[in-house]
TrEMBL record, chains A, B:
Keywords: FAD, Flavoprotein. The keyword Chaperone does not apply. This is FAD/FMN-containing dehydrogenase. PROSITE patterns: FAD_PCMH (PS51387). Residues 36-218 form the FAD-binding PCMH-type domain. SUPFAM superfamilies: FAD-binding/transporter-associated domain-like, FAD-linked oxidases, C-terminal domain. Belongs to the FAD-binding oxidoreductase/transferase type 4 family. It comes from the Bacteria.
């Protein structure tokens, strides 16, 4: 059983650290971005070095105080929110935001966990390289959180998710020992892959304090287009065609539902939309191409070939960087519009690519049987990753339908499971999906996870109640 | 302490399995490809299904019998060889070699662990896709071994190593329970990354029985060239130039030392070599390009730009598939020539890309201070991965210098460590490098590895003596 991070604990810990390291948490550390829950009480630690992180972990371990790592606070599964149980210490990495070094010819840089994703992208850009991880909250999300949750985003298709863009980590383990793994290497087969075990473990196995990030050459040419497609299946065939044509150089392939564009129209009427009337399905396609090929004409050839096979009915190719940016702004505004409309329940799911069309139709029908809901299904089609979000009928608030949220989620997740999919494609488990993981997870996997958690964090101080291990509130949040 | 796999054990186990599953091991299961050690005695199991593998693991666990997984037997670090201790059961996956399914539009296939790497490449090719993992022993190496050792090879630069080409695994854990992870998904953030923990664990944490492998579009055009470069540094700058020009579409960049070509000349005089006299350094470059670009002229432009910056002095661009093949045959014959010459000691190392030139010069000098040895340094330059192999003076046998092997290795590995490198870039640890891992490994990493091994394989039956955990022979092989 854990003890609360009380005043005595805070004061003793503060004495071992530079002034200003320990203090009270601010509202931004305590509130869920979707407003579903909050941490009622916590002590805040803002260390400046890995040594200070180690001191904090040692203190938590001896006092049996729970510790919640905190990046930008943009996580969507309550991984950073502790609504119940003994008050934790919140460990914010915000002051560890240095670029430790960048080696453009080696294609890598070493950054601290508290650097924002946008700052990491800018550091790479300034050195003539691309750090391709990109997602809507990149201005706020920090590298530590991005790695702890193995974040995805819009360029996974070509460059992989956070895991594949990280070559090594420095981390502090539950006993305060430091894992030194910041080697500037592409290949290292010396023993078990602890880097990938910590990546995606959401702070429950160790605290990532710095990382070696992989950089890519900036593609010489980019082409961006928005196309109307008759169905998700047609979109997939178009993707396959584009991949064949470019030898795998499609960087993004985002599916957009008509519902999402209607939401945009409703809450952001000033945002110009290229198609009128709004099509049921469209896709945002981006290619990253080598020198010697004309991006616009490559895109044109692909769309031409797609049109001949009836894979698309209309399309616009961006003629300038600002036109491309406008298309991306539209895509990236969808989550914001969703938030303003207010979802009853959101699903971050993946299904096999070939099953996407069937799944979307069947899931939409299943939701329709429960009530007259609106479904906004959008996401990273090339990764099989859909955000299948369910909203109240127009003019109603999500609150009215809160009682049906569990039923909707059960139907959708059951279907995901039947299709051999994932109930968390990119957001993680946190505290919001613990019960879902227990329900749908492979029993052998869950047993191995519990065993690993127990041995790497025997007192259970690391992000207690998240992902796996003893959940001290009896009720599990969903 | 483990018990030997004796006749009684073998007979009892045989009774629980179909006829012919249990039998005596053949020489090929017992011998190291480099002839350094052999397994004196073992029982052989050749199961046909994951259920049979589970039965075998359960039996080994209850009888406390060690189990050594066996793929193609091509591992170079004695991971499949047990020279000492109680006789093990050798679990060969050779009969589990089915293609369970292939989905070309989804870019993936599911294969069993006993399929050879070449057969996996062919299955992909037949479906119009590329399975890019490629290495010299691909005709013999099997997917299970390739994953268990996280194999690398010549296309890592563009497509990643075995780990990045695997989307999911089916595996049997030490207690006989089955991990069902064969989902056809690109993204799945439901809990800890057990896939990557098992990949590269060399059969010490679980037995991989099948895998979801990632397929890529076949590049529309390929260009292959062999160039003379003045130094490893120049080669790296040429690589950087080629990456910039192609937007990251360099598929291979192999460094070849003059010594390697001299060895080829010595033991394979009929193999035609393009350069006369043999250059001190050369590089084999391959690009994989989209449609709409002419591969040969792209390569020409790159080599031209390289020549202007004095990054190369001469080069040949393959004018046909068979010329490209001839260049690759030359590259792939180097390990074979090495074996015929007979190395005193081989090093599979990685150093930061920017340090390769300094490292090679310093290491060559250090080896030269020990004796009049010949160094053949070659490898996957783009990955920072070099095979730094040391040979006796011409006319002498490696046997004569066996006593100096340890000293050479110590000097080379000390230097690797000082440069922030890896003492095993792609071959793994096995039993040959256990002592080196203990010496150079990060203490926190080693402690976590021991903890994980102890909890996932409490009896210690899985590949006992490999990588980590109790080594029952007191002496550790090197």
């Amino acid at each position: 059983m854990l003890n609360p991070a009380d005043a005595t604990f805070a004061q003793r810990l503060a004495e071992r650290l530079p002034p200003d390291t320990i203090g009270p948490a601010e509202p931004r550390h305590l509130e869920d971005p979707r407003g579903r829950a909050r941490t009622p009480q916590a002590v805040l630690a803002r260390p400046r070095s890995v040594a200070e992180v180690a001191t904090i972990l040692s203190a938590c371990a001896s006092a049996r105080v729970g510790l919640v790592p905190f990046g930008g606070g943009t996580g969507l599964v309550l991984g950073q929110i502790v609504p119940d149980g003994p008050a934790p210490l919140i460990l914010s990495l915000e002051r560890m935001n240095n670029l430790r070094g960048i080696w453009p010819e080696e294609g890598l840089m070493i950054v601290e966990a508290g650097m924002t994703l946008a700052a990491a992208q800018e550091a790479a850009q300034a050195a003539g390289r691309l750090f391709p991880l990109s997602l809507a909250s990149e201005g706020t999300a920090r590298i530590g959180g991005v790695l702890a949750t193995n974040a995805g985003g819009v360029n996974v298709l070509r460059y992989g998710n956070a895991r594949e863009l990280c070559l090594g980590i420095e981390a502090v383990m539950a006993d305060g020992s430091v894992l030194h793994g910041l080697k500037r290497l592409r290949k290292d087969n010396t023993g078990y892959d602890l880097k990938d075990l910590l990546i995606g473990s959401e702070g429950t196995l160790g605290i990532i304090t710095a990382a070696v990030l992989r950089l890519w050459p900036i593609p010489a040419g980019r082409a961006t287009a928005l196309v109307q497609v008759p169905s998700p299946e047609a979109a997939l065939s178009l993707l396959s065609l584009a991949q064949d044509h470019t030898g795998g150089n499609v960087t993004s392939f985002e599916l957009i539902s008509g519902q999402g564009l209607h939401f945009l129209h409703e809450v952001m009427p000033d945002l110009r939309q290229p198609f009128d009337p709004i099509p049921e399905w469209s896709a945002l396609v981006e290619l990253g191409l080598p020198r010697g090929v004309d991006p616009a004409s490559t895109m044109e050839t692909i769309l031409q070939a797609g049109a001949e096979r009836a894979l698309l009915s209309d399309g616009v190719i961006a003629q300038s960087e600002s036109q491309a940016q406008a298309l991306w702004t539209m895509r990236e505004s969808i989550p914001l519009a969703n938030r303003r409309i207010g979802a009853i329940v959101s699903h971050d799911i993946a299904v096999p690519l070939g099953e996407i069309g069937n799944f979307v139709r069947e899931a939409t029908r299943a939701v329709g049987q429960i009530g007259p809901f609106r479904v906004n299904c959008f996401g990273h089609l090339g990764d099989g990753n859909l955000h299948f979000n369910v909203f109240p009928p127009a003019g109603n608030s999500a609150q009215t339908y809160r009682a049906q949220a569990d039923e909707i989620q059960r139907r959708v997740h059951d279907l995901v499971d039947r299709y051999g999919g994932s109930i968390s494609a990119e957001h993680g488990i946190g505290r919001a999906k613990r019960a879902e993981l227990e329900r749908y997870g492979d029993p052998t996997k869950l047993a191995a996870m519990r065993a690993i958690k127990a041995v790497l964090d025997p007192v259970g101080i690391l992000n207690p109640g998240a992902v796996i291990g003893p959940a001290w509130p009896d009720k599990i949040l969903s």
